[in-house]
Amino acid sequence: MARTSRKANRRHPLATVVLIAIGLAFTGGGYALFSSTATADSNVAASQATVEEGSKLFAANCATCHGMNLEGSAAGPNLLGVGAASVDFQVGTGRMPLAMQGPQAMQKPPQFTEEQTAALAAYVASLSPGPAVPTDSQIADTGDATNGGELFRINCAMCHNVAGAGGALTEGKFAPELTGVDSKYVYEAMLSGPQNMPVFNDHNITPEDKRDIITYLKYLQNNPSPGGFELGNLGPVAEGLFIWIFGIGAVVALTVWLTAKSN
C-alpha cells in the first residue's frame, strides 16, 4: 500500500515541461498584446500629429482660396472628396499653390517638402475621404505594356499624343508631356482628373490597367525610337513640315544648282 501511495503522489515526468510551456504562452501573449497596443497608440499619435501639422500648413497657405473647411470660394474650388491623391499630385508637382491665375495651373518646383505634402494630404483626407495616394505595388512598372499601350491609345492619346509627348488644347490649355513624370503622379492624375483631364476611377480603369499604362509610358521612355530622329513625337504635321521645308527645299536647291551649272 505504501508503494502504491508513493506512485500516486509522484509527479509525471512531463509536468515540468507543460508548466514551463504554459508560463511562456501567458508571458508571450501578454507581451504581444502590450506591444501591439503600444504600436497602435504610437501610430495613432503619429497620424494625429501629421494631421495637425497639415492643418497648420493648410490654414497658412491654402485656406484663403479653398476655405478652412474645404468649402472653396470664388478664388478656388472646394476640396470635399478630392482625397489625399489629388492633394499629393497638385502640391507635389508644384502646381499648387498657384503662382498666378491662368488657363491652367503650371508645373513648377514644389514649395513644400515631401513630409509637408503628406501632412497636407492627410489633413484634407481627414476632413473628407477620397482617393488615397497609390501604393508602391500599384505604380510599379511591372504590368503589361501591350495592354497599357492599347488603353493609352483609347483613353489618353487624343490629348497627350500616342507617344506621351503632350499636345495643345483650346483656350490656351494643353496636355503636358508624360516623359519623365513620376509614376505616382501619373496614377494620381488618372484618379483625380486635374485641369481638363477626365477622372478615371477604378471602375473606369482598374488599378491593374493603370499599372499597365504606367508600364507602357516607362517603356516609351526607356526605349527610344528605332527609326531615327523622332522630331519631337508630334506626329504627321511635324513630319510633313520637315519634308516640305528640308526635303522639297533640298530638291529645289539641287534643281537650281544643276540649271545654273548647265548654263
TrEMBL record:
This protein's UniProt keywords: Cell membrane, Electron transport, Heme, Iron, Lyase, Membrane, Metal-binding, Repeat, Respiratory chain, Translocase, Transmembrane, Transmembrane helix, Transport
Transmembrane segments: 12-34, 241-260
Record membrane topology: Multi-pass membrane protein
Catalytic activity from the UniProt record: a quinol + 2 Fe(III)-[cytochrome c](out) = a quinone + 2 Fe(II)-[cytochrome c](out) + 2 H(+)(out)
One Gene Ontology MF term: iron ion binding
Binding site for heme c 1: 62, 65-66
Subunit structure: The cytochrome bc1 complex is composed of a cytochrome b (QcrB), the Rieske iron-sulfur protein (QcrA) and a diheme cytochrome c (QcrC) subunit.
Protein name (Swiss-Prot/TrEMBL): Cytochrome bc1 complex cytochrome c subunit
Native organism: Subtercola boreus
